[in-house]
Amino acid sequence: MKNKKRIQLSYYSLCFIPVPVYLISTVDENGIYNIAPYGMVMPVSYNPLIISVGSDKNRDTYKNILQTNEFVLNVPSLELLRKVNRTADPIPSEQDEFVHADLTPIKSEIVQPPRIGECRAHLECETIWVKEVSEICENRVIITAKVVDLSLDEDIFIKDLCKQKGLMKSLYYEKHSYFSLGGYMGNRRMR
């Protein structure tokens, strides 16, 4: 067994696995579209399909979700890296971020916020609850939502999990750096 080294909490990124990047699309009460990149996203349940998102309370995305109780998790591919970065630009709330990032809004099946046409997969969500993290982190909230509809680019709907994940070419993020998913390594039956 190797020796373990304690490190300062500020070096947290050395212990974490990069998180998947999602683009969350929302719409405000005036019909203005918003897109923001998020990495603090995790599944909470698969049946029913429930996810949680960590957010800063100052973000337009959070404010829009509070107003409408709806949002879309869009899964961008590596090819969208520059446009993903544009969605992180600080722009006025009244400016359409689809236009700013040169992305295409497409009508969602159930919720009001649009899906992002260039993304490979989409999870349409309805908010269940929003909870403040605590007084330690006073500006952070957890948004928990039920996924009410799923869509995927037809060319990657091959029902082969191993091949499909590679075709998505998903982005992962950690400490101002992007990464991509490695190859298939095995399954739970391996011993």
Question: Could you please describe the fold and organization of this structure?
Answer:
The chain has 191 residues and is of the alpha+beta class. The chain has a single domain, classed as Pnp Oxidase, Chain A. It contains four helices and twelve strands, in the order βββββαβααββββαββ. The strands form three sheets. Strands 3-2-6-9-10-5-4 form a seven-stranded antiparallel sheet. A three-stranded antiparallel sheet has the order 1-11-12, with no helix packed on it. Strands 7-8 form a two-stranded antiparallel sheet. The protein is globular. It starts with 18 loop residues before the first strand and ends in an 11-residue tail after the last strand.
Please give a quick description of this structure.
With 191 residues, this protein is of the alpha+beta class.
Identify the CATH homologous superfamily.
Electron Transport, Fmn-binding Protein, Chain A
Give the overall shape.
globular
CATH topology: Pnp Oxidase, Chain A
Largest sheet: 7 strands, antiparallel
Number of discrete domains: 1
Radius of gyration: 18 Å
- Helical proportion? 10-25%
CATH class equals Mainly Beta
Query: Strand order within the widest sheet?
Result: 3-2-6-9-10-5-4
Q: What's the CATH architecture name? A: Roll
One letter per element, helices H and strands E, the order comes to EEEEEHEHHEEEEHEE
Mean pLDDT over the full residue set? 89
